[in-house]
What we know:
The complex is a heterodimer.
Chain A: H1 2-6, H2 17-46, E1 49-51, E2 58-60, H3 64-71, H4 74-104, H5 110-117, H6 119-122, H7 125-135, H8 142-149, H9 166-190, H10 195-203, H11 208-236, H12 240-245, H13 257-266, H14 271-300
Chain B: H1 5-13, H2 20-24, H3 29-61, H4 64-67, H5 82-89, H6 91-124, H7 130-139, H8 145-158, H9 165-189, H10 193-201, H11 206-217, H12 219-235, H13 238-243, H14 251-259, H15 267-288, H16 292-297
Helix pairs in contact in B: 3-15, 5-15, 6-9, 6-12, 6-14, 9-12, 10-11, 12-15, 14-15
Amino acid sequence: xxxxxxxRPPRGGRLSDRGFAWLLLAPGLAMFAAIIxxxxxxALATGFFEQSLVRPGRSFVGLAxxxxxxxxxxxxxLGRTLEFTLGATVLPFLLGLALALALNSGIRGSxxxxxLFLFPWVIPGVVVSFLWMWIFNANYGVLNGVLTRxxxxxxxxxxxxxxxxxxxxxxxxxxxxxxxxxxxxxLAGLQTxxxxxxxxxxxxxxxxxxxxxxxxxxxxxxxxxxxxxxxFIWNFQHFDTIYVLTGGGPAGATKTFAVAVYDTAFKxxxxxxxxALGALxxxxxxxxxxxxxxxxxxxxx
Amino acid sequence: MSIDVAxxxxxxxxxxxxxxxxxxxxLRPEQRRSRLAAWTAVTVxxxxxxxxxxxxxxxxLTPDDRAFQIRPDLFPREITLGHFTKLAxxxxxxxxxxxxxxxxxxxxxxxxxxxxxxxxxxxxFRYRGRRSLMHMVLASQMFPQxxxxxxxxxxxxxxxxxxxxxxxxxxxxxxxxxxCVWMLKGIFDTIPDALVEAASIDGASRxxxxxxxxxxxxxxxxxxxxxxxxxxxxxxxxxxxxxxxSGKQTLPPGLVHTYLGEFxxxxxxxxxxxxxxxxxxxxxxxxxxxxxxxxxxxxxxxG
Lengths: 301, 303
């Protein structure tokens, strides 16, 4: 902050307004440049080298890292990333929408309920992962306990340890952590729907579904698109839940881009390979961000 | 971001109101049906949403021999505070807690300072490149963190910053900035330009105007932004896991190291620890309720 002090203008101000405005931005922009822009550019460049995380020195290998990635791991990882992203976006969206509609219908205590429902979203992500790991535990987990009591299963299922259930378990965990956010955002959107319009439609004999389609949805569409895409973008790069719950396993069944890039760099120490995969991932992400920005602009107008 | 922070907040704090008379009339069958549907949705989703929280608390209070059963007790038959007292005696965990507090507090202060300057610049001055910069700040939270981390590790390693508080504070602050800047810009926008001009006519320098006139007016917003930054750094897992080793690590990776990867995880102990780790965040959230929607809209505590 010393630079700011030194630049303090005398009364009347020798510094122009524009200069002052940029001076205010300087510390923040410097941090962005050092922590985001430079690492990002450097990461994209590293993809063209063979480089280890732990040994100095590197050699230029051109597109080899990209070619190898595209020939092998890229496609299965893309498939699993999309599976996770879609599941962990659509489910919370539907739950959040149902809950927002219910809370907006004028039932008693909706304010208190809204606060209560936010708990899953508020507690730290790592705690969310611990909690569901315990719930899904093969031997002593409460999920297996309840299912056994109900007579649905005979022996405990290793939800996180089986290739056919691990992804579902991870998606359910992430759904639990994010549906409250969807609820709050959609509830805010619902409160822009004029009540009179609803009542008029009801008087005209429109049923609940018809009213949702013709009155509610047109008002809600803008914000719904934005929250859906934002959640999609976050899930596309989500790391914590998957890493703590399964570490990408079993047998790579939950290995998404975030986990794969992380593991390639920090367990395989293969920086070139990790950043090449990361660059491909980034291009896809930027595509989705572009869609988001367009939707956001449309939502604004 | 196009979402109108101040407007949304007002709309949400006012509970959805329905004419009082509607309740006194008997409900039409159609209304009764929709009310039934509403309560069904609330109940079903409520069970999904809140039972796990219940389970966290119950497990933290259950003695070990009762917690490790093939059919766990859904209602506690025996309750113990032993897991919590054990937690208090664990020096390693206490170290992680101290690290978390230091890093989160410093990040909050730095975030508020840096983002207030940026937001003020965006809000009260007009210059070329302003809009593009604002969009860049917003978009920066959409870059994949796992990828950034790979080279950030190399940068910090080369500069000797690995395993320092500074590495965490710098990276956390950068990730809290987008949200804080957008929140504070929304608040500065509501402070009339005339007020700023009046201060300068009275002879105050631009720095004085900002620090003595504008920032105090925005104080509640500054607190909210600070709490958001606190929660964001308190919750972070991946950066703290990678950029610091055991000595400087914060609670989330610290808990993973302490409890997971053992032959048999001490689940009740871990649930007690989870409970304690969640307290500051839940408390911050309760203070933040009012500002919540604006914050959520601008990109949220959990990135």
